Amino acid sequence: ELDVASRFQESLVCYQEGIDLLLQVVKATTDEAKKHRYRQKISELTFFSDGKYHKQIRIEENATGFGYEKLFQEYLTEIVSEVWVEDPYIRQVHQASRYSLYNFLRFCEMLVKGPCKVKTIHLLTSYDEGSGRSQQMSALGEIKQSLSNYGVTLNIDFSSSIHDREIRFNNGWMIKIGRGLDYFKKPQGHFSIGYCDFDLRPCRETTVDAFHTKHTKKM
Fold first, then answer.
1. Which end of the chain has the lower number of beta carbons within 10 A, N or C?
2. Strand 120-125's sheet: what is its strand order?
3. Can you give the residue range of the structural domain that contains 64?
4. Cβ pair 211, 75 in contact under 8 A
5. Which residues belong to any copy of the MIT domain (predicted)?
6. Which residues pair with residue 166 across a beta bridge?
7. What are phi and psi of 175, to 5 degrees?
């Protein structure tokens, strides 16, 4: 019923609960015929849940209405307390891309507002180049201090080989964005519509994929 109503996240919980209950029954029963039927049912539920929990959003060039709340809010349930952000470009490589640091700040603001109760954010990014490194460190340090005023700890690590971009929440959801957090176009001016409200900011073309890690097959 939940699948038919497109309430996929709720049906994921039901599938998982059903699988867990059947696994308990399999362990408790000695009837091999029943065990076989239960295992078949488990396979069916696993198939359905695996098939339902890859959601993809295609953001077209110049599209609007894709602020961070639009993309992430449905995954930020009240149990989310820890977040991992892996993005190599949370830095100021040059003037045109300096908004990546502001984008990360905006993402953190969304986490602080809730409804989740985030206590720890882990950021893995790469060092800026040349003279931009001191500005990067200063900006990230300021974000770290500001978050601490809200009871949130920001852990920052750097990698010279990081390439993939993904965001993970400790409720099992993982979101991959082709362009990372920096999928917005540069605003036309400091006083133009869309400068403050990301829902009104035109986007660059990218793809967003959401997975639930409990239903992601490991190679």
1. C
2. 54-59, 206-212, 173-177, 166-169, 82-86, 120-125, 153-158
3. 54-212
4. no
5. 1-45
6. 86
7. -120, 125
